[in-house]
C-alpha cells in the first residue's frame, strides 16, 4: 500500500503515519477543551439551527480536513471520525423531546462543481461512517445542490450566502424518508452558517424538523458558547 498511496503525515509530510505523533498532539490542541460544544456564527443568520463543533478550524485540523477532501487523502477518514463522532453523539443525545426512533443524519450536499473536482463524495462518506457509529442514528443523503451553485470553496464569505440561496433540494420522497423523525445536518465546517442555513431551509420546506447541526470544526469567528448561551473567547 505504501507504493500505491501517498504516505506521510497529512499535516507536516513526515513519512510514515497518516498523522504523525506530534501533529496528533497538535490536532487535539485545536479541539475545544472538555469536548464538542455549541458554537455560534457571528453574525448568526436567523433560522440557523443550533450547531455543535469539536474543534477550531485551524492548524492541523484545517490541514487534515483539506487533505481529506481536496488532496485525495481518503485514508484520513478515521482520524476525522475521531473528531466528528463525539460531536454527533452529543447533538443526537441533546435532541428534545428525545425521539424514540432516533435521529436522522443528513449530510450537507456537495455542489456538482466540487464533486467534479474531487471525483467522489468524501464528506458524504465521512458522515455515513459517523452516523453508523452513533446508536439510533440513521443516515439519509436526501439533499442535492442545483447546477447553478458555484464551488463554495472558491468564494468569499459574502458571496457564499448569495450563491447558496434556494439552490438545495430534497430528493423526491426524501421528506417522507424521515418518518417524522428529527434531523441533524452534518457538514465539515462552520464558517458563516450560510450552507447549513440553506440545507435547513430545504428540509423545512418539506416539513422536516431540523433539530440541529454538527460540524467537525468552526472558524474562529464562531466562538463556542457555554450552557447559558454566553459567548466565550477561546484562543
Ligand atoms: Zn506531522
Automatic annotation (TrEMBL):
PANTHER family: DNA UTILIZATION PROTEIN YHGH
Stretch forming the signal peptide: none
Residues annotated as transmembrane: none
Family label: Belongs to the ComF/GntX family.
Domain Phosphoribosyltransferase, chain residue ranges per copy: 178-221
Name by which UniProt lists this protein: ComF family protein
A Pfam family matched in the record: Pribosyltran
Superkingdom in the source lineage: Bacteria
InterPro entries xref list: ComF/GntX_DNA_util-trans, PRTase-like, PRTase_dom
